[in-house]
Amino acid sequence: MSVFLTASRASLRATRTPASSMQVARRYAHFENTAQTSLPFPQGPKHAKGLAFGITGFFALGLGLPVVAVYYQM
């Protein structure tokens, strides 16, 4: 029974300690989260035509492929 009392005393002591004395794991890293660094493809005014072509192709393939598959099955 004393094992349970010792464990409960330890947990009570942990709850009584102020939050300022407890160690907190912190990450000291800073990354710039801008559109140029967070997106996996080049963008901006210099790449506008290529980006528009890529997005249009992506949606055309994604929406057109099921239509072609249904046509082929019929």
Automatic annotation (TrEMBL):
It holds the Pfam family COX7C. The chain crosses the membrane at residues 51-72. It comes from the Eukaryota. The keyword Transmembrane applies. It is found in: Mitochondrion inner membrane. It is a single-pass membrane protein. GO terms for cellular component: mitochondrial inner membrane; respiratory chain complex IV. Gene3D superfamilies: Cytochrome c oxidase subunit VIIc (4.10.49.10). Pathway: Energy metabolism; oxidative phosphorylation. Its main location: mitochondrion. Keywords: Membrane, Mitochondrion, Mitochondrion inner membrane, Transit peptide, Transmembrane, Transmembrane helix. GO terms for biological process: mitochondrial electron transport, cytochrome c to oxygen. Belongs to the cytochrome c oxidase VIIc family. Component of the cytochrome c oxidase (complex IV, CIV), a multisubunit enzyme composed of a catalytic core of 3 subunits and several supernumerary subunits. The complex exists as a monomer or a dimer and forms supercomplexes (SCs) in the inner mitochondrial membrane with ubiquinol-cytochrome c oxidoreductase (cytochrome b-c1 complex, complex III, CIII). Component of the cytochrome c oxidase, the last enzyme in the mitochondrial electron transport chain which drives oxidative phosphorylation. The respiratory chain contains 3 multisubunit complexes succinate dehydrogenase (complex II, CII), ubiquinol-cytochrome c oxidoreductase (cytochrome b-c1 complex, complex III, CIII) and cytochrome c oxidase (complex IV, CIV), that cooperate to transfer electrons derived from NADH and succinate to molecular oxygen, creating an electrochemical gradient over the inner membrane that drives transmembrane transport and the ATP synthase. This is Cytochrome c oxidase subunit 8, mitochondrial. It comes from Malassezia psittaci. The lineage of its organism: Eukaryota, Fungi, Dikarya, Basidiomycota, Ustilaginomycotina.
